[in-house]
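Reply to dn_fold:

You asked what the input looked like. This is it:
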Amino acid sequence: MISDRVTGARVIRTALPAEAETIADLHVRARSTYYPDGVPQSDVDWAEAWRGSVERPDGQVLCAVEQGRIVGIASFRTPDGAPAETVKLFQFHVDPDRWRAGIGTDLHAACVEQWRADGRRSAVLDVHVGNRRAQAFYARRGWVPDPENPPADGDHHLFLRFSVPGE
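and this is what came back:
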C-alpha cells in the first residue's frame, strides 16, 4: 500500500472507512458535472459502496487531502477475470471546486506509482461518453482507446487502456 505521498501542502494517502460519507459526497458532486440532466437516479447507497471499496482486501482507494479536506479520490483493483498484471481504475474524481489545481495530476501519478510497485503492466478504465474533460485528462497522461473493448452501440462509456511505465 502507498505510504503518505506529500506534494507541497497536498497529501495522497490510503482512504479510511470512516471517510466513506465524505468520499461519496465528493463522488456525487463530481459525477453531476457530466450529466446534463443530473445524476441518474439509482438505489445505490454510495457511502456504503465506498466503505466497501475502502475495506476491500483486493483493492485500494487513495485520497488527495489538502488542509484536512479530501479533494480527490481514486479506486482501483484487478477486475474480475483479468490477469493479475492488469488493474482497473474504477473511480477517479476531483472536487469540481478544485479543478485545474494539479490534484488530478498528483493523484494519477500516485496511482501509477502504486501500480508499478504492485507489478501491474496495464491499467483499464471506462469513462462516460459525455465526460470530455476526463477524456482529455486521461489522453494527456497516455490513456488510449482499448482495442480489445470497443464500445457497443448505445453504450454510454468509452473504454481506455494505459501501459504502466517500468522502473
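The longest strand covers residues 69-77.
Hope that clears it up.
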